[in-house]
Amino acid sequence: MPDKAPIKFFSGRESVYLAEKIAKSYGMELGKSSVLQFSDGEFQPCFDESVRGCVVFIIQSTFPPADNLFELLLMIDAAKRASAYKVVAVIPYLGFARQDRKDKPRVSIGAKLVADLLSTAGVSRVMTMDLHADQIQGFFDVPVDHLYASSIFVPYIKNLGLEDLVIAAPDMGGTKRANAYSRFLNSDLVICYKLRKKANYVDEITIIGDVKGKNVVIIDDMIDTAGTMLLATDLMMQTGAKSVRAVSTHAVLSGQAVEKIEKSAISEVVVTDTIPRNYNSGKIKVLTVADLFATVIEKVYNYQSISSTFIV
Predict the structure, then answer these.
(1) Residue 1 above 50 pLDDT?
(2) Looking at the chain, which runs of residues are DSSP E strands?
(3) N or C: which terminal CB in the chain sees fewer CB atoms within 10 Å?
(4) Averaged pLDDT for residues 131-145
(5) Mean pLDDT across 59-84
(6) Which residues of 135-173 are buried (b: 16+ CB within 10 A; e: fewer)?
(7) With contact defined as beta carbons under 8 Å apart, do 300 and 88 qualify?
(8) CA 166 from chain center: how many Å?
(9) What value, to the nearest 5°, has the Cα angle with vertex 264 and ends 261 and 267?
(10) Entry pTM
(11) How confident is the model at residue 103 (pLDDT cuts 50, 70, 90)?
(12) Interatomic CA distance for residues 121 and 73, integer angstroms
């Protein structure tokens, strides 16, 4: 085994809340950094301590605005120019991941562009969670550790002790993820088929499978406007479901999503803290990913397999 370089943790401004928990779980403190802010909005991140010869883990989710992504890129560049041995970008939520293909003419593949930008900035490795599409890992020319929130959600679902449990996929694209949960939990699977004519708006939804008398748990990678989830909830309740819950890794929750959830028939929405919580809702429960990321960081740093962290 090669000699290990010293390890240091840093964070972008919008992910300090999570980075502090990851560092604490690992048994360290965040390194010192600052950001010089210009009056026109331009900014310049700076490491306020030496990173020479260190393995630097920079923690930053890249949710909107794009400043969060650009701040991460600048921090990677700064670390490389300060002679860091390796720079690992820990991106709990990777923004622009929904742009993973050309689904209509004359559009960009944003996820590929983000991958190229990170590589150009000088990242040595990327660590992220529940990508919108697994193939995004192939967009990177550096190793990608793709973590799954299932190791957090599956124990939670088990502890609910729900009888007549059914796992639901919110759309055809989420079938693989939901099927993995259903096999592990030994439950039935239903699929929501949705007709979407434009982004963030579902025109029609149909449930494929039986939910009558069942306790349904919808599995998804993110909740944005919550439109699909709540349409599916209403339809399931109308067709005889006992209850409907949802678990989703990334709580984007844009627009009136939180208000809609509060007024809906859904029993509970369980999310993680990959995106900061700027809302209050009795129906939304937040589970932390800090311990999972700290565990994987330790394994990666010590050249150990991370396969044991995967449940489904």
Answers:
(1) no
(2) 7-11, 33-37, 43-47, 55-59, 86-91, 125-129, 144-147, 165-169, 188-195, 204-208, 215-223, 243-251, 268-272, 284-287
(3) N
(4) 95
(5) 98
(6) ebeebbeeebbbbbbbbbbbeebeeeebeebbbbbbbee
(7) yes
(8) 23
(9) 85
(10) 0.93
(11) confident
(12) 6
Residue count of the chain, please give it: 312
pLDDT of the residue at 171:
84
Which contacts of 158-163 are long-range, i.e. CB under 8 A and separated by 24 or more positions? Answer: 158/185, 160/245, 162/215, 162/217, 162/243, 163/215
**Residue burial 223-238, b: 16+ Cβ < 10 Å; e: rest:** bbbbbbbbbbbebbbe
Tens of pLDDT, residue by residue over 274-311, are: 999 988 899 999 999 999 999 999 999 999 999 988 87
- How far apart (Å, rounded) are the C-alpha atoms in residues 169 and 199? 19
d(CA 252, CA 274): 9
- Known catalytic residues are 194
Residue 2, pLDDT score:
47
Do 23 and 9 form a contact (C-beta atoms < 8 A)? Answer: yes
For residue 56, which of 88, 32, 34 has the smallest C-alpha distance? 88
Computed from CA positions of residues 294, 71, 133, 55, in that sequence, does the dihedral angle turn out positive or negative? negative
Residue type, 116: D
